[in-house]
Write a structure and sequence with these properties.
nine-stranded antiparallel sheet, 36% strand
């Protein structure tokens, strides 16, 4: 048996060796020494010099950031200078690997996709080459001469977390993001034929023209051949090529016919196959590169064009990051992130602030996102120009062939050395333009965080193409969706505006292995995301999805005279509107006491007009005969790939019409009223109400002996006068308690045609126990603060709520879009957006278009309130204040009490500016118009 196992192992090794040899005869063979991503790792021997698990040899998973494996010490970039222990932190890696004997006819390179930060590599005790500096760049060594064939070899890597180069540290370590140590991207062997293609740079234009630079390691070649296949491998064209040889480089040109251009909306891809032939026509080496045919132009004082079409960037900044693995990611995570961006109707992403994993760019190519690729600097340029030149070369050479990359960014926020700008063209056959994010530079103005008004009137650079590479800083629940509607209206209609890039995609929260697994966002430095660390969707996610919808439907209200016609604009760049589809659903919702969900009364497809990009038109929704029996109309748009663009919702009935179907005020019972000192006691059915005789406010509700904690309301918000009188009117089947406020001189007599002309509230206790409340507020044209009414209810007794209205996310005055009108149900949570919990939707806050709300209490003594008035906001409790919210990324003034019914709500700002700077919707003034018509809030409480 033992002999059999030995023979089996030998045979297996022989087969693997010979298969490898055969496969790599003319092709490149890749053999991983590490794992391939965060979910597929390989254990190597490891020693850490400082911090957690230091001063001993043990095992570590590769690739990884060693802090997330429980080694060393965590630090956020800004603090490395003051935390001296980090300065000498380094790790030692050892790993043995087998090299087949017949590889001795090959050229073998070891490739590191990314190491933080300085890497010294040895093979069998000998240096593989110069120490590599720069954490975010692929590097490789030719190690053929150092290998032992047919046996094991020893790889040793020393990794210094901090670089010995001051420019590298300034660029990568003293930054505004988490910094880590380790071999955090994969390591592999690249096995090539002796005579081979070293690398290829390709320029594939939208008209099918191809030029390529084919770099070889030999001059003893006859020619280069190209042929084109689709991604399935089917040969489309053997390309007629014109080739010119220079020293170890071929300049090749060809023309492909009948190709489909690459665009973010239509990401058509092909494989370009390259063969290196000897003088006898034998293939020395062959490889393939995935390409897209597309052309990019930056036209001065005009715009950025792809394939001759001007584009608007609907973009976001994105870190390569996962909370449990730091900068070590995976293709699955890249796919997830790109799909979420596409789901938000984005078309662009900026690499902040370093080149990402290659698989992320692969996914941008295949799913369709425009990319700005960036080298890593932050506020300080590369003073060491030699290392800066190396960094740019490594970035461009690796990524040159990705069709998704439209522009290069030479660092971030004054981190550019202008002497290095021309280095990009040395390595980029496509000669893509270089920008300086946060600066006016050549043809572009990429100013960061312009306020709305500065964006509109930036006089010194009005002739530049204007696109902020960071705007609406999304700290906590601020920015992102809050303000985007105003900005985008401006960006869309400004001829020289090319869109912009939101900051940032995800909260960069890291799992602290040294702090019992808490998620740390380093105060207010890293909670900037539209989504949480694990992709948890905040409310802004859906606001962005609606605002950036390529199908723009003009705002519409459905009234009895509704014609079925909607005005529409095609905001795609290359897609015709009729390539998409819209489905109309007429919905009926169930009430607060029904478990069943909603149902579709009628459904049909909408015929969309054939509108070219940029054109406006209309479509008509078919109205069934009984359409006015529906509660709402849903319009769901899907793109050509079947993905939802957005679902718009339109109430058909008024709140009063909807609620009338749930309420019955008739009863044969009587109502008992007693005045006792300061209390008006009213009993109806099995409910007892106590009101203040001095203020008319509700003080207590008791049902069957159980207290319901709603009280101390209605406090009138926006009322400018004092309470004048409390009137009690008793009837056989009801009791009215009226609070009258002093009239102001500007109004007429307080009674006119039996209508009040001063502020008042009126309670009506009905004999069946229902409690009605009517409030009228005489508003001013401009109101500072809230307009509405408020009550108290103890937060500790709140379990959840179910409601008919917009949801499931809360809204701000400048973030109203992205919700849907239907029945929702949220459980209580105390999430502070981006800071703690990451349970979404947040329970606390403002909710729009309230029809009814059922409050669940822990004591099982909740209530239902029906709102009969139009366009009322529900305020549910008070969100906790986030820490260090900057100039405006928090709302810290809420109405008194806990539950409010309002006609206006506040706007939300950002880390760098108050809401009032983000556009008209962020104004701190509330304009209510004609003062002759009161604000009416009509509620019915059911206990």
């Amino acid at each position: 048996m033992k002999l059999f196992k030995m023979l089996f192992c030998f045979l297996t090794l022989y087969l693997v060796t010979n298969i490898d040899a055969k496969a790599q005869k003319t092709e490149t063979l890749i053999k991983y020494l590490s794992g391939t991503d965060k979910d597929n790792t390989v254990a190597w021997d490891f020693y850490c010099s400082e911090g957690m698990q230091s001063k001993k040899w043990t095992k570590i998973q590769v690739p990884s950031c060693w802090e997330l494996q429980g080694f060393g010490a965590y630090n956020y970039g800004r603090d490395y200078k003051v935390n001296k222990p980090y300065a000498n932190e380094h790790g030692l890696y050892k790993h043995k690997f087998f090299v087949p004997k017949n590889w001795n006819e090959s050229e073998i390179k070891i490739v590191f996709e990314g190491v933080m930060t300085d890497a010294e590599v040895k093979i069998n005790g000998q240096l593989a080459g110069a120490i590599h500096q720069g954490a975010f760049y692929e590097f490789k060594y030719n190690i053929t001469r150092l290998l032992k064939f047919g046996t094991e070899n020893l790889l040793e890597v020393k990794v210094n977390k901090m670089s010995s180069n001051a420019s590298i540290n300034a660029a990568e370590r003293n930054t505004d993001f988490w910094i880590f140590g380790g071999i955090y991207r994969p390591v592999f062997l690249e096995v090539l034929p002796k005579k081979n293609i070293q690398r290829v740079a390709i320029n594939a234009q939208a008209n099918g023209a191809i030029t390529a630079e084919v770099f070889t390691n030999t001059n003893k070649t006859e020619t280069v051949q190209l042929f084109l296949t689709n991604l399935k491998g089917n040969t489309l064209q053997n390309l007629e090529t014109s080739a010119k040889k220079e020293d170890k480089k071929w300049l090749v040109s060809a023309k492909a016919s009948n190709i489909k251009p690459w665009h973010a909306e239509t990401p058509h891809l092909y494989n370009l196959h390259i063969k290196l032939l000897d003088k006898n026509g034998n293939t020395l080496h062959k490889l393939s590169k995935r390409i897209g045919f597309r052309s990019v132009e930056v036209r001065e004082s005009d715009g950025i064009y792809v394939n001759g079409k001007k584009i608007k960037f609907k973009g976001v900044n994105r870190h390569s990051f996962h909370p449990e693995s730091g900068r070590t990611t995976s293709k699955a995570l890249s796919i997830k992130h790109v799909k979420m961006m596409k789901d938000m109707n984005m078309n662009a992403v900026r690499m902040s602030h370093y080149p990402p994993d290659t698989h992320f760019l692969d996914v941008c190519d295949s799913l369709g996102l425009f990319v700005i690729n960036e080298v890593c600097t932050w506020h300080v340029p590369y003073l060491d120009e030699k290392v800066g030149e190396k960094i740019i070369k490594e970035a461009v050479v690796r990524d040159v062939n990705h069709p998704s990359i439209l522009l290069w960014a030479n660092g971030n926020e004054t981190g550019w050395n202008t002497n290095l700008d021309d280095d990009y063209a040395k390595w980029d056959i496509q000669k893509r333009e270089v920008i300086h994010p946060w600066n006016v530079f050549k043809k572009t103005n990429t100013m960061h965080y312009p306020d709305y008004y500065k964006f509109a009137f930036d006089a010194p650079s009005k002739d530049k193409i204007y696109f902020p590479t960071e705007f609406l800083h999304g700290l906590y629940d601020g920015g992102h969706g809050a303000g985007l509607d105003d900005y985008w209206k401006q960006m869309w209609h400004m001829p020289l505006a090319a869109g912009g890039f939101l900051w940032n995609f995800a909260d960069e929260g890291v799992v602290r292995t040294d702090k019992n697994g808490i998620i740390d966002v380093d105060g207010n430095h890293a909670p900037d995301g539209i989504v949480g660390p694990y992709g948890e969707k905040e409310g802004s996610y859906f606001t962005i999805k609606e605002v950036w919808s390529p199908i723009y439907i003009e705002e519409r209200y459905i009234k009895p005279s509704f014609s079925g016609v909607f005005n529409v604009e095609n905001r795609y760049h290359v897609t015709h509107l009729n390539a998409c589809e819209i489905t109309a659903k007429w919905m009926v919702f169930n009430g607060p006491n029904t478990l069943a969900g909603s149902k579709v009364l009628f459904e049909n497809k909408v015929e969309l007009p054939n509108l070219a990009p940029g054109e406006k038109g209309s479509f008509t929704v078919k109205k069934p005969e009984n359409w006015q029996q529906a509660d709402a109309l849903f319009l769901t748009a899907k793109d050509m790939y079947g993905m939802e663009i957005f679902t718009w919702s339109y109430p058909v009935k008024t709140p009063k019409q909807i609620n009338n179907t749930y309420l019955n005020f008739s009863s044969s019972a009587s109502v008992q009223t007693t005045k006792l000192n300061d209390v008006i006691l009213v009993k109806a059915k099995d409910i007892e109400y106590k009101f203040s005789n001095k203020t008319g406010l509700l003080k207590m509700v008791t049902k069957k002996g159980n207290q319901i904690h709603l009280k101390d309301g209605p406090v009138l918000l926006g009322n400018k006068t004092n309470l004048e009188n409390v009137v009690v009117n008793t009837f056989e089947d009801k009791v009215e308690i009226i609070g009258l406020f002093k009239k102001r001189k500007k109004y007429h007599d307080w009674k006119e045609n039996n209508k009040m002309t001063q502020d008042f509230f009126k309670w009506t206790v009905n004999s069946n126990g229902l409690l009605d409340l009517n409030v009228e507020l005489r508003n001013q044209k401009i109101v500072e603060g809230y307009m509405g009414i408020t009550f108290s209810f103890p937060e500790e007794d709140v379990k959840g709520m179910k409601w008919l209205g917009d949801g499931p996310y809360r809204v701000w005055r400048n973030r109203m879009k992205g919700t849907r009108f239907q029945v929702w149900e949220n459980n209580y949570n105390n999430t502070v957006t981006g800071q703690s919990g990451w349970v979404y939707p947040e329970f606390k806050g403002f909710f729009s278009r309230l029809n009814w709300m059922k409050l669940y209490s822990k004591s099982r003594n909740g209530f239902t309130v029906y709102c009969h008035s139009d366009l009322i906001f529900l305020r549910m409790l008070t969100p906790d204040q986030p820490k260090e919210y900057g100039k405006g990324a928090a709302v810290n003034v809420f109405p008194e009490g806990n539950i409010s019914f309002l006609k206006n709500i506040p706007a939300m700002g950002t880390k760098f500016m108050p809401a009032s700077s983000s556009g008209p919707q962020g104004s701190d003034k509330n304009y209510f118009g004609n003062t002759d018509e009161p604000i009416v809030i009509h509620l019915t409480f059911e206990f």
